[in-house]
Amino acid sequence: MNHNFTKKIIEILDKFFGNNSEQIFKNSELLQYLNIKTISADRGSKARGSFANIYALYVLIEDYINKGFHIQGNYSKYQGAIFSNLLKRQRELPFGNKLQNHALNHRLNQEFAKYFPTCEYIPIIRVAETKRYWVNENLLIVKANRNTFNIAEPVINIIDKYIETKKNAFDNFIKTSEQLKTIETEHSERVKDFILSLIKPNADARIFEIVSYSILKYYYYEQSIFWGFSLDAIKEENLKLYKTGRTNANDGGIDFVMKPLGRFFQVTETTDVKKYFLDIDKLEKFPITFVIKSTTSVNELNRCIKDGAIKQFKVDSVVDKYMNCIEEIINIDSLIIILNKVEKDSHLKNVLSEIIKQSKVEFYYESVEDFYEEE
Question: What pTM was computed for the model?
Fold first, then answer.
């Protein structure tokens, strides 16, 4: 697989290994894995970055280099890196301050094995009882052109370059957003076009979730209901949409929640209709609104989901039960219509501010506490 960042990888290898770099790249599963994981490097802020597994590699190889094993050897005698130190170091890296232990414990090894099923090595060796970790040195020692090379230092250089590229892309995204926010009243079309570019079918799923939330928040902002616990205590209250946490969180299938109606929203890009039924089941068949990253019409999406229900369940009453749980489907075209309404209500600047705020939190530029203090 060759992509634009592949050239950067080869340049770094050339710097370390000269004429041997091409063969080293070809012979190393670890370098091939990094090549796969860095495909999003120059695709801008809207492309999903791969940090968790890469950072698990980074901190272990960094520990390996810091203790001089790439020069003096004897890594087999090392007692191993301490888990808490590795996790702390991961969280010090850009975009890494909310990373969990999954990559270090199993996800990196699982994914690596998926890409390289015939490779006899896994990247991380660990002893769960002692919480000690090692990078698999077999993957750092590469044979090429009848010589043996240690790729620890170039791997760190490659990951550093990837981080730099992604950080620059995100900085530019935030800078553009901030600039557009200041000119919203004179150039609202530029702001609108920018927002629309973030909900295209090829946009990153996390960005789509953030932008769809921001648009819907200010769409419902102008709507209100009258309610109360008794007839003499009826009050008017504006609808408020809340984001329940970071994207891809293990939150039971609730991405947004609306007060005071108690509506649930789930954002998805999948075409697998079984995922819709899974979300409905997780909420014990509570009504749910699906926000779908698709330009397929709402009617067609409804038809596809129903066809999937008929195929899976066969029984009409069960199919009807699932379909009745779909309160509403909002697709990309629906979001565009809603954005037009938001623009008429003079909330484009608010939508853009919300996108900036949520993006900084999602990509670990600010803590959740920081941005709520700004409210």
Answer: 0.68
